[in-house]
Specification:
The chain has two domains: 10-55 and 176-243, no CATH class; 57-170, de novo design (two linked rop proteins) (Up-down Bundle), CATH 1.20.1440. Helix 7 crosses helix 8. The relative contact order is 0.17. It has eight helices and no strands. The protein is elongated. By secondary structure, it is mainly alpha-helical. Helix content is 81%, strand content 0%.
Length: 244
């Protein structure tokens, strides 16, 4: 039985560990083996941890995307107000002046460069300022301003939701997904596989089906990794040739 390739991705090794655990729990004969029971117990703990770590990584990416959307919405409003303020149409420019004054107050404070929490606070304050009754007519008279303000509200709400998910995912999070990847690979390659190979050589019937299932799954993943690696190498080679 071959070992898993060390270039295995975090999501791949998470899936592999889940599959091996599922094979074991479905195999009554393999469960009679004390060593396997102990090894699978360790694997199950690590599998839960890498799943949590991967979720945290994904929610962080979502959070960054949501923050980017807030920044774009803020900049769009600034562009719209700046455009109206520069128009040679006095009525439009007059409506834009008080709105741009509010926006500039936050823009000069570099709102888009603040920390996540500080930015959220500033956005809520800015939206509250724009909601003032005396500004309603100005907003109404400038096409696109109400929509731009609404877009900031939507982006801020989406960020708040993503931030809640991120905080939930960080609860009880320990090491990184990559760290758990290494620990799982070590457990499988240096503990589980050598033992299964030994049991197959000694004819331990209790482990036969489980070992076969594990071998097939590892082979499948190794083949996928090999294809991916070859494809990347081919692209790199083609790029090198084109750059000559």
């Amino acid at each position: 039985m071959n070992k898993i390739k060390r270039v295995i991705r975090n999501t791949e090794i998470d899936t592999l560990s889940d599959t091996i655990i599922r094979f074991f729990k479905a195999d009554k004969e393999a469960q009679k083996d004390a060593f396997l029971s102990s090894a699978i117990g360790e694997l199950e703990e690590l599998s839960e941890k890498i799943t949590t770590a991967i979720l945290q990584d994904k929610t962080l990416s979502t959070l960054e995307t949501a923050d980017g959307a807030r920044n774009r919405a803020i900049r769009t409003l600034g562009t719209v107000l700046k455009g109206y303020a520069a128009l040679p149409i006095e009525s439009k420019a007059a409506h834009a002046v008080p709105l741009k004054a509010i926006f500039d107050k936050y823009a000069k404070g570099r709102i888009t460069r603040e920390s996540y929490a500080a930015k959220s606070s500033l956005i809520e304050s800015m939206l509250q300022d724009f909601a003032a009754a005396q500004l309603a007519e100005h907003i109404k008279e400038l096409e696109g301003v109400a929509e731009s303000i609404a877009a900031i509200r939507t982006a801020q709400d989406a960020f708040a939701k993503a931030n809640d998910a991120f905080l939930d995912a960080t609860v009880n999070k320990g090491a990184s997904a990559t760290s758990f990847n290494k620990q799982i690979a070590l457990l499988i390659n240096e503990k589980l596989i050598p033992y299964l190979n030994a049991m197959l050589l000694t004819g331990n019937a209790n482990c036969t089906d489980f070992a076969k299932n594990v071998e097939e799954e590892i082979t499948r993943i190794n083949e996928a990794i090999a294809k991916r690696t070859k494809k990347a190498a081919d692209k790199a080679a083609e790029k090198a040739v084109n750059e000559v």
